[in-house]
Amino acid sequence: MKLFRLLLLVLAAIHVSIAQAQDVGAAPKPAPDPDATLNYIHGAWDTLTRSMTECHSLVDIKVTANPVLYMPAEIPAPPQVAALEQKCHLKVASLPNHIDKIGDVRPEQLPAEGLLYLPNPYVVPGGRFNEMYGWDSYFIVLGLEADHREALAKGMVDNFFFEIEHYGGVLNANRTYYLTRSQPPFLPSMIRAVYENPASFPATPAGRTDARTWLEHAYAMAEKDYSTWTRPEHKAGSTGLARYFDYGTGPVPEMADDATYYVDVLRWLVAHPHEGGESFLLKGTQHPDATEAARLKQTSCDVHASVVCMKAWFAGYRLTRDFYIGDRAMRESGFDPGFRFGPFDGATHHYAPVCLNSLLYRYERDMEHFALLLGRPADATRWERRAKARNAAIHRYLWQSRTGVFADYDFMRHKASTYAYISSLYPLWAGVATREEAKQVVARLNLFERPGGLSMSNFDSGLQWDEPFGWAPTNWVAVAGLDAAGFRADAQRNARKWNDTVDNGFAQDGTLREKYNVASGNANVKVRMGYSVNQIGFGWTNGVYLKMKQVMAEPEPLPAR
Q1: How large is the average pLDDT for residues 498-518?
Q2: What is the C-alpha to C-alpha distance for residues 123 and 549, in angstroms, rounded to an integer?
Q3: Would you say 134 and 145 are in contact if contact means Cβ atoms under 8 Å apart?
Q4: CB-count exposure of residue 1 (10 Å: 0-12, 13-18, 19+)
Q5: 3 state SS of 93
Q6: Which of 22, 49, 188, 524 is deepest in the core (most CB within 10 A)?
Q7: CB of 366 within 8 A of CB of 358?
Q8: CB 67: neighbour CB atoms within 10 A?
Q9: Is the pLDDT of residue 548 over 50?
């Protein structure tokens, strides 16, 4: 017995020695270093900057055809742009006609997809996103301002004015396949970020004159862009609120590089016939004949016009036309995809969303502010009336006093959504929530707060805009909203959690990412369906990291912009 015990002790000692030897030999895990993250961000702006005179700015891995650069119909190509035909081996073409509003030119009218010309350099998100995006740019602009890159920030906002004037509004991004939709409307907040920064214009009489001239132009462009959201197609029924909507039809062309997405949607819907997506399924063959193709053009999508449409088939089913309308609306929302508006957000267009209407309330209040600065009291009164009307509609349809949250409203079925989503915090950022409502929303932060920041939802759908994933834009809107509403401790706590998560991710692989796992507090993102890659870059993560540092450092609340 003593010999047996001695043998056990020897074996245990050997095991410990082996383990210690392995630990000694293993490379130590790098510790998170905020200074290293900051150095990466300072250098990343140049890495992510694009312009119309550089060949790599024209590349689009989402659509692999030879690049084409499109000019507005009314503007000839400048000499340096015309020179790109030889320099970059591409075609420079003109759009077929002037565009007054989004959707006036459809992508299918053009011989090939391409990049839309913009006059100034801009920062792209990174990865597969090699163009200037609508809502990404707000968070990028905030980061550029925080990092003293004011000229680049102003140039990006000026690019949006160019889009409004020549492409009908702020676009999802400057590619031809985005000519049919916008993105969450942050334009007035971007204008304020530039105009209110003392470094944007010289502190001289001439500088003040330039600032006023710029604001007058900004006001006119923002007023035109606002009209995008008041068109009939963007109205959420008779609620007085707005919805997301894309003026195109069928599957989106930019999914050509992810040919399995719509098939994956069909596979899930077929496997879960009683989980809310049954209305998205349509019987159809894999290789339809002419008669069936004509029917599908009306009930699903055009198999002859779209390769993506033709491939969107599984087990005897295709997706309905209504699903594609919702799918496109989802992409205008920026939250693509999740389960917030039904499976794969296929019913997005049936809802008046909290996020969109909070942003439009803020839009109207900012426009009232600009009108007063410009000495236009009648305009200011008109904007104030619009804001008050939206405020009343938000409180009638979106505020749920029984549960203490702001919830999306299904205006087709006349009922509020019960899906917990981080957009419930948008009204704090927008200034539409009362003090008592803000207190109730904050009391339910546990719906979203995780060790690494704020999760999109409390439901794990397997998609990227749900639990357990957190994103820079929604974390910033939430933290800035908490800060503006007077909940400084909550804002600072979540700002620190978010930046710690970004630091942890950077320590692992030396990059900043598109999204993070806030349950584990790092960049270990495993998406089960839909977009599976966590893109490297990343524009809005860079910007929000810098803004979160300000919240963490400032003793007094910062104004939410």
Answers
A1: 98
A2: 21
A3: no
A4: exposed
A5: strand
A6: 188
A7: no
A8: 20
A9: yes
Helix (H, G, I), strand (E, B) or coil at 100: coil
CB-side neighbour CA atoms (13 Å) of 227? 12
Give the C-alpha separation, 50 to 130, whole Å: 8
Is the backbone peptide bond immediately before 337 cis, with ω within 30 degrees of 0? yes
Torsion sign over Cα 367, 370, 374, 380: positive
Using 50, 70 and 90 to split pLDDT, how confident is the model at 11?
Answer: very low
pLDDT tens for 129-160 read: 999 999 999 999 999 999 999 999 999 999 99
pLDDT tens-digit readout, 391-434: 999 999 999 999 999 999 999 999 999 999 999 999 999 999 99
Q: Which residues are tagged catalytic?
A: 336, 514
pLDDT band at 256 (very low <50, low <70, confident <90, very high): confident
Residue with tokens 């079925």: 413
Q: Which of helix, strand or coil describes residue 141? A: helix
- Between strands 281-283 and 68-71, the pairing is unpaired
Q: How far apart are CA 471 and CA 479, in angstroms?
A: 12
Q: Yes or no: say if 422 and 454 are a contact pair by the CB < 8 Å rule.
A: yes
Could you give the maximum distance between any two Cα atoms of the chain, in Å?
99
Model confidence, pTM = 0.93
Token pair 């909507």 in the structure block, residue: 245
Residue-wise pLDDT tens digits, 453-506: 999 999 999 999 999 999 999 999 999 999 999 999 999 999 999 999 999 999
Task: List the structure tokens of 457.
Answer: 């939802």
Give the sheet arrangement for strand 409-410, strand by strand. 351-352, 409-410, 415-416
Cα 184 to Cα 456: distance, rounded to the nearest angstrom: 16
pLDDT tier at 560 (50, 70, 90 boundaries)? Answer: low
| Distance of alpha carbon 451 from alpha carbon 453, whole angstroms | 6
Judge whether residue 73 has pLDDT over 80: yes
Q: Is the dihedral of CA 445, 450, 455, 458 positive or negative?
A: negative
Residues 70 and 417: their CA atoms lie apart, in Å, by 42
Residue of 208, 258, 234, 263 whose CA lies nearest to 353? 234
H/E segment holding residue 199: none
What is the SS3 assignment for 288? coil
